[in-house]
Amino acid sequence: MTSIVAVGPVTVGINLTSSRAELRALGLTPGSFSILSVARIEAIRLTLEKTRGTLPEPRNGGSVGNTANLIARAGVSCGFMGVGGNDAFGRAFVANCASASLAFLSQLEEGAVTGYDFYLYDEAGERTIILTHGANALLSPDRIDSDAIQGAELVLLDGSVLSFGPESEAAMAHCAQVAEAANVPFVLTLASTRIVNNYRPFYDTFAPKAQLVAGNLEQTAVLLNLNPQATLDEVRAELAKTPIDALVTLDAAGAFARIGGEEFLMPTQEIEALDSTGAGDNFLGAFLVARRQGLSVRKALAVGNIVSGEVIQVDTARLPLSVAVPRLMQKAIQIAETLDD
Prior knowledge:
By secondary structure, the chain is α/β, with parallel strands linked by helices. The protein is 39% helix and 18% strand.
């Protein structure tokens, strides 16, 4: 059994430079974000392959997938559960998990297309994103390995999964209920403000039961029925009225946590970001590893700040495999240990 089980999207991503003319020729609006059907994105992919030849190797994506990747590379036994197709992208996803010592706990589906996305950067550096949920839309309670959840020490649930398909919410509820029945704590991520709004009954039910709810300030504000632009002080005041334990990332301002009725605010050193994608995901992973090693909440927040500061200096949501994560974590923990609680 794996110590930590993550449930999230099986998805890979491809980054490409493009031009506004090419984007329009593909029927895309520069700077837009679109969720496409499998048929539509496959047509775009085939067109890109025809004009460019072999595309770059796909990289694994997904919010909790990024978190699980860091945890596994830090040396903690971790497994990932989700639905992918038994195609080139699905097999690449599993291979990328293996390279990070992250166990893939599900079976790839024959005849299904793995979810994937393109990040297309134009001449001005503006990003156009297209994605398809693909096989992720097949997620249901029947595809959840309940034994793996029951045998875990901690379960990570990716809120983005809620929007994938007709049984996605039921699958997530099933995960939380199985964990709760087995006295296994679970962490619930907030994904996006749109998902928090659209699946409010789910969050109203399970956020108070989670060991930790993790998201950024805007997402947390929406969870609390506040304006997305609410200040940290407003979020703190509203959070104090609830039983929710929360971890809130604040971008360059650091992080805030309210756990067990206590509040913790940890500023961070301002670092020029090359790409902030995945910073919060890796922050959560580093925080959980630090807490697992016995650090206080405040010191674990400092560890999260240090690790996410490394992530934003690379143009990917995950640290390159050349980075020795155990060594990075050890260094971050040593720095954090010098701080006062």
